[in-house]
Write a structure and sequence with these properties.
By secondary structure, this protein is an alpha/beta fold. The chain has four domains: 3-250, Phenylalanyl-tRNA Synthetase, Chain B, domain 3 (3-Layer(bba) Sandwich); 260-476, Rossmann fold (3-Layer(aba) Sandwich), CATH 3.40.50; 502-577, Tyrosyl-Transfer RNA Synthetase; 586-662, Structural Genomics Hypothetical 15.5 Kd Protein In mrcA-pckA Intergenic Region, Chain A, CATH 3.10.290.10. Helix content is 40%, strand content 19%. It contains 25 helices and 24 strands. The chain has a six-stranded mixed β-sheet with strand order 12-17-16-13-14-15, with helices on both faces. It has a five-stranded mixed β-sheet with strand order 8-7-4-1-11, with no helix packed on it. Helix 21 (544-560) crosses helix 22 (562-577). It starts with a strand and ends with a strand. It catalyses: tRNA(Tyr) + L-tyrosine + ATP = L-tyrosyl-tRNA(Tyr) + AMP + diphosphate + H(+). GO terms for molecular function: ATP binding; phenylalanine-tRNA ligase activity; RNA binding; tyrosine-tRNA ligase activity. Keywords: Aminoacyl-tRNA synthetase, ATP-binding, Ligase, Nucleotide-binding, Protein biosynthesis, RNA-binding. This is Tyrosine--tRNA ligase. Residues 67-191 form the B3/B4 tRNA-binding domain.
Amino acid sequence: MKTIQFSIKPELFELFKNAQFGAVLLSDIVVKDVNHQELLQNLRRNIYSRLANSNKNISETKEYRLWGHVFSLLGLNIKQQLPSHLALYKRFKNNRELPKINTLVDIYNHISLLRQIPLGGHNVEGIDSISIDSTNGSEVYISKGKNELVEANRWAYMDNHNRVLTKDLVWRQSDVSLIGEETKSIFIPIDDITASFSNHQLANIVNEIVDVLSNFYNFKWSYGIINKYNQKILLTTANTEIISKPNNLLLPTPEINTSNSAISSFLDHKIDEVYPSKESLIEALKSGRRLSFYIGADATAPRLHLGHLIPVLKLKELQEMGHRLVFLIGDFTARIGDPTDKSAARVMLTEEEVNRNAKNFLEQIKKYIDFDSSSNPAEVVFNSTWNDQLSMSDVIDLSSNFTVQQMLERDMFAKRIKENKPIYLHEFLYPLLQGYDSVYMGVDGEFGGRDQTFNMLAGRTLAKNIAGIDKFVVTTHFLLSADGVNKMSKSIGNCIFIDDSPQDKYGKVMSIPDELIMHYYQLATQFDNERLILIEDELERGQPMDIKKKLAFEVVRLNDGESSAKEAQNYFEQTVQLGNRPNDAREVSKSELRLITGKDTIQVKELLILTKLCSSNSEAKRLCKSGAVEVNEIKATNPEQEYSLAEIDTIKAGKRNWIILVN
């Protein structure tokens, strides 16, 4: 166990009022019997791959501007010396590997490069406290064996022996705290002097450091944050055992499939548009470089539908080709609501509603995307991680990349103006914040339905202007609902949901009009063009019912498996085509209904709602008036018709939904 006191002189916060400093303390470090060089090589390759797509010079970056201001306040010139993380980035951009010092140092140097934040490291054996203080002119700084007297009023990391550990905060570590292969106790400072990270982001960086290190070493650790409100902390390493788990940064780089057949299959009939061009994407896919792609889904409703799966399954193909896949949960942007295709502003959701929806999203998407692969697992991120930290200044900077005219040209805004409906300012911010996701993650490409083109191109603009990344935008065709007019939409509710029962999926597909059969074959199955041509020929010769049943079977098979598809088809044939009561019809107790209503009689609309065959009086009235409701297998068209509970044996809504009433 090890204890270190870490403190900061209050005057530093007069210079940098929002600065914050993370601190990680590790003790009792024991080397694991693993191949360190192999893991380090994997770490280097994965991080270099993620950073390879930026074309910006270091002097053009936001980090350079912010740290240039920091250095000027410290009396330094950023043109003459760079903070440690930018020095690492410059080396990387010059096609030079980071220096190989030792395993511990190499690990935090590479994470510093990836996350673009200064990380240091001090051997703290024999040290009880570390402080950030201004020098008085008597302190000695030792570098490469040479003693140097530090001038007064320089900010430095210092220990309880009054030795300078790092002068000018983030530049040049002293020899006295150098880390070696046998070091047992380490203090790692995380210098967020520019206040670019939230507490949550700092905690994520710490977890990443600890997670990666735990694959190389056993140790005890502790973590804390210092800011202007909390200028002193005591770190004591806990006795908690670190359980190492696979980290994506340490996995071997997957072999990239660059075959013409794989690329051609990927760019099939489901792809709508590719920006800047399909040819440039093909060139990138053939290059052999591991690319990063993401898809985002706002957690505005608890369920995903078949339309969402079109871009998701395209991304799955890229994952199988060896590329990196990120699934983004828009927990922050969901609170605003995407105005796309909306004739009125969305209702803003609470954080609790969004979190509940996000949890449901992940459970559903795991059926299709492999998040546990031993070679190329997909990653999950939440955009509140970075959007929560955006300042007003940041939002203004993002806004400067677009014009009001660009926003007003969007169809739904033009329609609202014509209808004299309000457009709220926060709706203009939505594409900026979605676009910033691309900047923060530094991805090579984004996927979405074609209705998301404006938002994704906003991200392309920001990625190019801010990060120097020429991001691909890939849109897919969207799936129409059964009306043949509107896209399938969770906000409208006209959906075949991923978590619908196999019977409901099958039945909903069977309810689509015949003219949509080929549309669903093209977008809701994984059939290739040759198979689709044969199906279209068969459809032209007649027998749409049989072809639609094959479609329904394939949709269920793709989402729920072969056996579920067979059961769903049998259920449909028995209940809808033959009119038989299903063997597994749900039972509802008449006694419970009496307790709920307090009487022995019940209206049809009450019975429909209490048995959960519908959710509202209006829906119950619609079902009855359309002739879709049967009580004891006799049509009940009057929703207010009253029956004795004793005489009701069954109630049916539509052709597929039966309830048996039991005593």
